[in-house]
Amino acid sequence: MAGNTSSDGPQDAATPCAENTFAPLPNVSKLAFNLFPNPTVDYLIIDFESVASDQGLIFIYDRMGSLLQKETLDFTRKARTDINISDLPSGTYIVKVIL
To answer: What is the pLDDT at residue 15?
Structure first.
C-alpha cells in the first residue's frame, strides 16, 4: 500500500511501494464482481458474477482523481477480463465499472 498506518493514523502517503493496490469503494450498487490479485503488478483480473449487458467500461483513476486508463469490456464471450496495467506506476488506484 502507498503509505503506512499506525494507531496514530496515516503516515507519509508518498512512501513508495513495489505493487499496485486498488482501493475498494462502499457498495454503491448491486453489481457483483471480484478484482484480483490485489495487490498486483502487470494484470488486474475482473470476474463478474453476472452481466446484464454485452459491453461495459472500466476506468482506472489515481488517488488524485486523474483518469489513467480506460478499457472497453466485451462480455459476449465471457464475464471475466484481464486488464493490462503494466504501464501504471506503483501506487493505489480507484476502479470504476460501468455496465
So the answer is: 41
Using CA atoms, how far residue 8 sits from 5, 16, 17, 30, 83, in Å, is: 8, 20, 21, 35, 36
Whether the Cβ atoms of residue 38 and residue 92 lie closer than 8 Å to each other: no
Q: Are 76 and 54 in contact (CB under 8 A)?
A: yes
Question: What's the whole-model pTM score?
Answer: 0.66
Dihedral (CA of 15, 63, 88, 50) sign = positive
Residue 80 has a CB neighbour count (10 Å cut-off) of: 14
Range of the domain at 40: 5-98
d(CA 95, CA 39): 13
The CATH number of the domain holding residue 83 is 2.60.40
Total domains in the fold of the chain: 1
